[in-house]
Amino acid sequence: MYTLIKSIGLAVSVFILATGCSKNTTTLEDSKLFGLASPIQLVGDTTVVVIADYFESPLNIDSVVSDDAIQIAFDTTNLYLLSVSSKPLSNLTVYAEGIPYAILVKGSKTKKYHFDVSIKPNYVTLKIKGEFNNWNSSKSELFPSVHGSPYGIVLNLKPGKYQYKLIADGKEIDDPSNPVTISNGMGGFNNVLEVSGPPKELTPSIVTESFSTNEIVISSVHTDNIYAYWNNFRIETKKEGNNFKLVIPVFARNINRSHIRIFGYNQDAVSNDLLIPLEKGNVITDAKKLNNNDWHSSIMYFMMVDRFVDGDKSNNHPVNDPAILSKAQYYGGDIQGITQKIKSGYFRDLHINTIWVSPITQNPIDAWGQFHDPETKFSGYHGYWPVTSTTVDFRLGSEADVKEMLSVAHQNGLSVLLDYVANHVHEQHSVYQQHKDWVTPLYLPDGSMNTERWDDHRLTTWFDTFLPTLNLENPKVADFMIDSALFWVTHYDFDGFRHDATKHIPENFWRNLSKKVKLVSKEKEKYIYQIGETYGTHDLINSYISTGMLDAQFDFNMYDKALPVFAKEQASMTQLADALEASLTTYGYHHLMGNITGNQDKPRFMGYADGSLPFDLPGQEYKRIGWKQDITVQDNLAYKKMAMFNAFNMTIPGIPIIYYGDEIGMTGAGDPDNRRMMRFENLSKEEMALQKEIAKLTTLRKDNMALLYGDFSILENTENRLTYKRKYFSNEVTVTLHKDARNPWSYDIQVKNK
Q1: How many CB atoms lie within 10 A of CB 579?
Q2: Cβ–Cβ < 8 Å for 76, 250
Q3: What is the DSSP letter of 296?
Q4: Helix or strand or coil: residue 510?
Q5: Cβ 384 vs Cβ 423: under 8 Å
Q6: What is the number of other CB atoms lying within 10 angstroms of the CB of residue 525?
């Protein structure tokens, strides 16, 4: 059974906070909703909202009302938004124990798109795969179309550009009816379809203009109205011409850190969003007032522990098996080595305030896996084959070493994320040895092996035959792994997680883990940040990001578009603008997504940038090159390309992430060649120059509120040049990236403080 409530008028259904409000400040601060409530995105005719994503208990809820034509039903588990919104934006007010919490609602973004192909009906089957269906054609077959073309399909798509290929009787072909193509970054081309949205010239936009002790002024273009929130409460706004004025609630002065969020819209579209941090009710304009709980100010560095610094020779224990070639052996890097680098000021000099370390749980002491040509097995140096979930690998250090690293890191202003593996265990793990029924099937009903089935069986597939995937739909299994994860933020003092293989884990696990992580965050009075790893469409990645789940994921789609643009002369800069638009409209203009130049699973950027690596090889071939060739930097222009890539990541919304060695331009092919031992000495002049340039870029980012909280607008977008601006009140930063003949691989950054 559920209760149905019809939405009623704004005047009586929405409680708006104003300066004169006498609501008890202690009650408002003791919120039943932890963190900033993520907007609800309407989908189809009925949108289901899990109450526990927002509130600790459904029993807290008294009633729910909307200021739009949305009918609302709810039971003990879910809210059901039963009709399509009539506005691009609206507001949902949830009364919990008498307090009105406000949640923004976004109207449906998708529309039906009739995709037709003019092609002779010579094929038994014709399918389509592309960026809109995660390049999976299994459920996207074209049939005779009512529009007169031999084949067609109806797709539900958001406005934007989408790359795609046709699959004719199992073989990829170009769409003969669409001349619009783009490089796929791998030596070939994809067709492009574009779903039109509102005209650019009529798109609404909002900008931070000015502020006083009790008021904020927002300027706008083509904006009919705005929704403004202080934390999770609506606040009063007033429109004067093209400006909107909003009042900072007086009781914000009693809270050390709170936030103002603003969303604009007109009858056709939504604007960008704004995020303004407050300190005791005052607008923060000095980045020095931010701290490590302000995750928008994070600049992150990722290292593989075994490949960073060997700080303790006594724990060097390579696997004693000649079947393991040297690149797949333990190199000796350890936790003490990281501590030493923190103490030496390495991260301070790079202006890093967050480090992410690879998994440190115990891995097997023998050889596993097999690669052919050359023939080699592997050690568990990387940490992703856990045989326990709460014990430190003795080759990396001890419990005391971990606690010292965390203590030294915190003393030096560093937050530390732990790479955590929940999806699978090594077959030697006690949980598998004692509970063989706690894993997903290795063989599918048709008899085929359920390994590396990343998309068609993504929630059950095994990574390898010795890495059982846990059945995390089972509450007992999920509770075991959730408790194991919590151990690292309770027994130890890690500041967050990087979660491995996020899309291969069911949503119930992330919901339950995140709920418990929030409780730890409240107890420790610090925000424990969680970022996931998912390869797939924007919508798939975004499905794991919300108030009740993860804070962010890595923006691999941005990376995939940026890689050829910065590495290849021929790739158009317009791809960056398209990628930015897709990310910002999906994740918001103040998201916490990770922007990378590379990671442990990708060939090094420098290998592409200097021409050592082609773009059109299967993944196994990149690995084979790494085994058989000694890749070195062949063209010093690659260092300028790497600097430019970092300039981009350091100046766009999101968290910039440096993969260890990228700051000096380390190169390498597929793993494990992209996981060479870090080098700190005997650097070439080009490597030292790149390191200094990246330190300048990190300084620029950490010192400018415009790059941490500013709005974002593109000023120029051509084949060889991209210019964009970020503005936060009087702080403006304008960035121009050049690839033209006069300014090849260069960038210009202008900072203005009015």
Answers
A1: 20
A2: no
A3: G
A4: helix
A5: no
A6: 7
Which pLDDT value is given to residue 4? 44
Angle subtended at Cα 660 by Cα 657 and Cα 662, rounded to the nearest 5 degrees: 80
DSSP code string of 374-442: TTEEE-STTS-S-S-SSSB-TTT--HHHHHHHHHHHHHTT-EEEEEE--SB--TTSHHHHH-GGGB--S
Q: Find out whether 144 and 151 touch, Cβ atoms under 8 Å.
A: yes
The CB-based long-range contact list for 319-326 (8 Å cut-off, 24+ gap) reads 319/365, 319/366, 319/367, 319/379, 321/366, 321/367, 321/377, 323/367, 323/375, 323/376, 323/377, 324/367, 324/376, 324/377, 324/378, 324/379, 325/374, 325/376, 325/627
Strands (E), 566-673: 594-596, 655-659
CA 336 to chain centre: 29
Tally the C-alpha atoms within 13 A of residue 573's C-alpha that lie toward its C-beta: 22
Return the CATH fold of 111-157+160-195.
Immunoglobulin-like (2.60.40)
pLDDT in tens, 357-366: 999 999 999 9
Residue 126 near residue 142, CB atoms below 8 Å: yes
Residue 353, SS3? coil
CA distance 343 to 306: 19
Is 70 exceeded by the pLDDT of residue 653? Answer: yes
Q: Which of 422, 427, 317, 318 is nearest to 369 (CA)?
A: 427
Give this prediction's pTM.
0.93
CA–CA separation, 613 and 611 (whole Å): 5
For every residue of 24-70, DSSP letters joined together read -HHHHHS-SS-SPPPPEEP-SS-EEEEGGGT-S-GGGEEEEEESSS-
Q: Other C-beta atoms within 10 Å of 394: how many?
A: 12
**CA-derived radius of gyration, the chain:** 26
Cβ atoms 325, 669 nearer than 8 A = no
Instruction: Tell me the torsion sign for CA atoms 479, 480, 483, 484.
Output: negative
- In the block, tokens 């932890």 appear at 34
* Integer Cα distance of 289 and 588 in angstroms: 24
Q: What amino acid is encoded at 139 in this protein? A: K
Which residues lie below 8 Å from residue 459, measured CB to CB, with a gap of 6+? 440, 473, 504, 505, 506
State the pairing for strand pair 594-596/655-659.
Answer: parallel
- Dig out the tokens for 449 from the structure: 């092996």
Q: Quick count: other Cβ atoms within 10 Å of Cβ 506?
A: 14
Segment 110-133, tens digit of pLDDT: 778 889 898 877 888 999 999 888
pLDDT digits (tens, 9 = 90+) for 426-435: 999 999 999 9
243-247 and 529-532 as β-strands: parallel, antiparallel, unpaired? Answer: unpaired
Per 3-state DSSP, what percentage of the chain is helix, strand, and coil (rounded to 5)? 25, 30, 45
Question: Is residue 620 scored above 80 in pLDDT?
Answer: yes
Gap between the Cα atoms of 655 and 737, Å rounded: 19
Buried b / exposed e over 398-409, threshold 16 CB at 10 Å, is: beebbeebbebb
Q: Kindly tell me if the per-residue pLDDT of 134 is higher than 90.
A: no
